[in-house]
Amino acid sequence: MYRIKYMMRNKERSLLLAFISFIFVSFVFLYIDSIERNYRALEDLGKQMPVSICLTDVSGIRQQGLRIREETVDRLGQLDVKDKVLTAESYGNVSANGQDGKKISVFLTASNDASAFLLEPESLSVGMEEFQELLSGDDGKCLMSKEYAKERGLDCQKGDTLELNLYSGKYNEIGQVDGFEKVISTQIEIGGFFQGQVYDSIAAKEPNVICPVEWLRSQYAEAGKQFYFSSVRGTVGNPLQLNDWKAKAKKLAFAPVNSQQPEDISRIALSVDDRNYIQTASKIRKNMEILKVFMVPVFVLLVFLEALVFFLSIHNQKREMFLMRCLGIKRFEIILQLLLEGSLLATIGSVTAMVVLLCAGYGFPAGTWVKVFLSFLVVQLVGSLFSAIVSCGRNVMHIGKTY
Q1: What is the sign of the dihedral through the CA atoms of 241, 246, 250 and 253?
Q2: Vertex 92: Cα angle to 86 and 95 (nearest 5)
Q3: What 3-state DSSP class applies to 92?
Q4: Is residue 95 within 8 Å of residue 102, measured between CB atoms?
């Protein structure tokens, strides 16, 4: 009770000690927040700056119009790759409404994702969601080029069925189509029309028909023919494990790009565009290392300063301790009162700091709040206990001589 009354009488001293606790605890939390913010930035970097991968020819020149075997794509499936976009190409001739006398040659491009094309919503006769749903499935539906149908005089509407003879291209040594081989005769339904440019490269051949890649793959499988993908791209699922990802890719026999090799659409390499990610991640990791290196010295300094403040605070109360000893209060009781007073002021300052930080939007796990608070309280108790023992350990007459 006496110490509480003393605190009320010495408001300036009590407020100063509570404010010092507020400053120390705030600094500790802000330091921890800087480290955790770098951790979060590193974890979110993969979303903001995804590491893109694609299969190219061995020289790295071509990313489309390749001859990628199914086995290669299946091996890629063993790696952590998300947002995978596949395309494939085929040739054929079609007729509408059973008019076999009028066969029209078409070039088909198949994909599993609408992002493989440059088509905007206004260039489609169907919505983008319906277009995406069509490509991600395996139904025999397609979108036909409106300009191509008009140019060739193909009178057809949405929902019509096309008689389709599928052909695969025969490629020569320089990767050009030098003949065709029939795959299968089948049917495909017109699910809509598109118009405009499909690719952003003038070197890429523009398709007349777009269909689901899984449907085209199934047609080749039914005919017992080898199926090839023309392009594959995606992003690394967890860029934080990029080194392990690359090591696994090497074990799966994915060859790296070699610009010294000649262009060859049948020799496939794995290209990983990770330069920007690695540069940014390295800067974040460097910041984290610096913060961790200085964390121990900074916290030791805080501990020393906190202990020193409470030591000086108690040491300056020799007159009060002299009076209490003269009144017959035991040393143990005086030490206990001093510790309770210091703990109460430290708790007030710490809790105030935590409330202010919460109101400012700093969210920490409950465990972090508790650990920092308890650590600070232990530091304060150690400093107060040391000072109280030193001050109270002297003879009462020795203390009184200073006054």
Answers
A1: positive
A2: 125
A3: strand
A4: yes
Burial code of 387-403, b = ≥16 C-beta within 10 A, e = fewer?
A: bbeebbebeeeebbeee
- What number of residues does the chain have? 403
In angstroms, the CA 387 to CA 393 distance is 10
DSSP at 60: S
Neighbours of 372 (CB within 10 A): 19
Closest C-alpha among 13, 64, 59, 401 to residue 232: 64
Give the model confidence (pLDDT) of 193-224 as tens digits. 999 888 765 556 789 999 999 999 999 999 99
Question: In this model, does residue 52 exceed pLDDT 60?
Answer: yes
Tell me which DSSP letter residue 115 carries.
G
DSSP 124: B
Whole-model pTM: value is 0.73
Give, in order, the Cα–Cα distances in Å from 381 to each of 297, 308, 340.
20, 12, 9
pLDDT at residue 118 is higher than 90: no
- 312 vs 245, more confident: 245
CB atoms within 10 A of CB 318: 17
Half-sphere exposure of 97 (CA within 13 A, CB side): 5
> Strand 177-194 relative to strand 161-171: parallel, antiparallel, unpaired?
antiparallel
Q: How do the residues of the chain divide into helix, strand and coil, expressed in percent and rounded to 5?
A: 50, 20, 25
* Whether the Cβ atoms of residue 141 and residue 189 lie closer than 8 Å to each other: yes
**384: helix, coil or strand?**
helix
Strand partners, 143: 192, 210
Alpha-carbon gap, residue 4 to 342, rounded angstroms: 11
Tokens of 190: 């017109």
Query: Which residue bears the tokens 């050009």?
Result: 176
Instruction: Output the DSSP codes for 214-262.
Output: HHHHHHHHHHT---EESEEEEEES-GGGHHHHHHHHHHTTPEEP-TTSP
- Cα distance between residue 265 and residue 207, in whole Å: 19
Identify any residues that bridge with 110 across adjacent strands, giving them in sequence order.
88, 211
pLDDT computed for residue 162 by the predictor: 87
The three-point CA angle 219-221-225 to 5° equals: 100
